[in-house]
Amino acid sequence: MYKLPSGTSEPMQYVHNIIIALYIIITLGVMVRVLMDHRQPAKTMAWLLVLTFVPLVGIIFYFFFGQNTRKERLISQRSMDRLTKRSMLEYAEQGELQLPNAHKELINLFTNLSLALPYKDNEVEIFTNGYDFFLDLLDQIGNARHHIHLGTYIIKDDALGQLIADALIDKAQQGVEVRLIYDDVGCWSVKSKFFERMMHGGVQVQSFMPVRFPMFTSKMNYRNHRKLCIIDGQTGYIGGMNVALRYVKGTRKQEWRDTHLRLRGGAVYGIQRAFLVDWYFVSRTLITDKAYYPVLSPLIRNNCIAQVVTCSPVSPWPDIMQGTCAYCSKPRNTFIWSRLTSCQPNLYSSLCALLDKLELTLG
Predict the structure, then answer these.
(1) Looking at the structure, do residues 100 and 166 belong to the same domain, yes or no?
(2) Is the same domain home to 97 and 137?
(3) Looking at the structure, do residues 136 and 277 belong to the same domain, yes or no?
(4) Are 152 and 227 in contact (CB under 8 A)?
(5) Radius of gyration of the chain (CA)
(6) For residue range 184-234, what is the model confidence (pLDDT) as tens digits?
(7) Nearest to 155 by CA among 187, 192, 202, 122
(8) Is residue 236, in this structure, part of any structural domain at all?
(9) By C-alpha distance, which of 240, 220, 218 is closest to 152?
(10) Residues 34 and 108 grouped into a single domain
């Protein structure tokens, strides 16, 4: 054991030895936790090296930036079961669900990973510009009778954001239940009075994983990028458009190109479940009433199958990445369209393996 300089009292030597022993125990405990996290090997080795060769600072860095939120029980299994019960009942009541053989393996993978259930009989409208999308969204909000659930990464305090806020406040004052989830990091530049106005108008507003000290928290890595809306449990929107004027007018340099979908049919149950899980996560309020999963229109009978797959800090696995890797592992012509070009090593390896086998197009 390392000794203090001569002249140091014996009690101080004991205190020093105890501190060193505690540090070694804590470091070994953190190393064991890193090994048990089932990270990618490169990340595991990187953290082990940091903890070994950067004393004390390495542990501080790990607690702020390295903890794996997926391993924490952020939502109890009992609560998750209650949140999933309604969508499972509606799934079970589907008659003659025929999964296409070409995609059955992938559909089953997502179902087993996170209970992303496939639903048949869906109508889909595709929007590729914000002007058409937001006109349609405002029309549906205006016709809402029971509830409006809106989740978005960004909602700007600009002309479009104010218009959406006014529409939500108007419906809340008519007695419609209105809930809004926005991402705290995505809306950093939005002043609190923008959300306070909606709350005073009757809208229930929650921020996702608030970050007060962005340079000193691992929460920065777990953001909610969902852009979805559910109207009365009958109509659902999901896609890539945030609530910001640039999605309508573009930027000074170019037009803004993104995609959003409007769905009617069983897939709305999947979108509703995604929102209600997030709502419980941010508010600790369980919403499981059947009114949020109403009987769907009997006029939609087209066997169009849709599956809503989500990924979040409450998911035990990175479902979307694993599904994409599984899909790319099969020999087929593949087209991947993503505005975000960041590529995980596992996915990168899967894509590289395809280059010699088939045509791969990245958009």
Answers:
(1) yes
(2) yes
(3) yes
(4) yes
(5) 24
(6) 989 989 999 999 999 999 999 999 988 765 544 444 557 889 999 999 999
(7) 187
(8) yes
(9) 240
(10) no
Domain count for the chain: 3
**Contact (Cβ atoms closer than 8 angstroms) between residue 203 and residue 172:** yes
Buried b (16+ CB within 10 A) or exposed e, 132-169: ebbebbeebbeebeebbbbbbbbbbbbebbeebbebbb
What CATH number did the domain enclosing 245 receive?
3.30.870.10
The answer to whether 121 and 266 are in contact (CB under 8 A) is yes
Tell me the whole-structure pTM to 2 decimals. Answer: 0.78
Structure-token pair, residue 254? 């170019």
Kind and range of the H or E run holding 164? helix 159-173
Which residue's entry shows tokens 């064991």? 32
Are 163 and 257 members of one domain? yes
Q: Are 176 and 144 in contact (CB under 8 A)?
A: yes
Q: Tens digits of per-residue pLDDT, 6-46?
A: 555 677 778 878 888 888 888 888 888 877 776 667 777 88
Model confidence pLDDT, tens digit, residues 46-102: 878 888 888 788 777 777 666 665 555 556 677 777 777 778 777 777 877 888 888
Got the DSSP string for 181-228? Answer: EEETTTTTTS-HHHHHHHHHTT-EEEEES--S-GGG-GGGG------E
Question: 143 in a domain, yes or no?
Answer: yes
Inter-residue contact 129 to 321 (CB < 8 Å): no
- Which residue range forms the structural domain that includes residue 186? 77-307
Are residue 38 and residue 117 in the same domain, yes or no? no
Q: Are residues 272 and 179 in contact, defined by beta-carbon separation less than 8 angstroms? A: no
Instruction: Note whether 21 and 59 are same-domain residues.
Output: yes
Looking at the domain assignment, is residue 312 inside a domain?
no
User: Would residue 271 count as lying in a domain?
Assistant: yes
- What DSSP line would sit under 53-111, residue for residue? HSTTHHHHHIIIII--GGGS-SS-HHHHHHHHHHHHHHHHT--S----TTTHHHHHHHH
Q: Which amino acid is at 111?
A: T
Residue with tokens 């395809």: 354
Domain match, 112 and 188 both: yes
- What is the DSSP pairing of strand 360-362 with strand 334-336? parallel
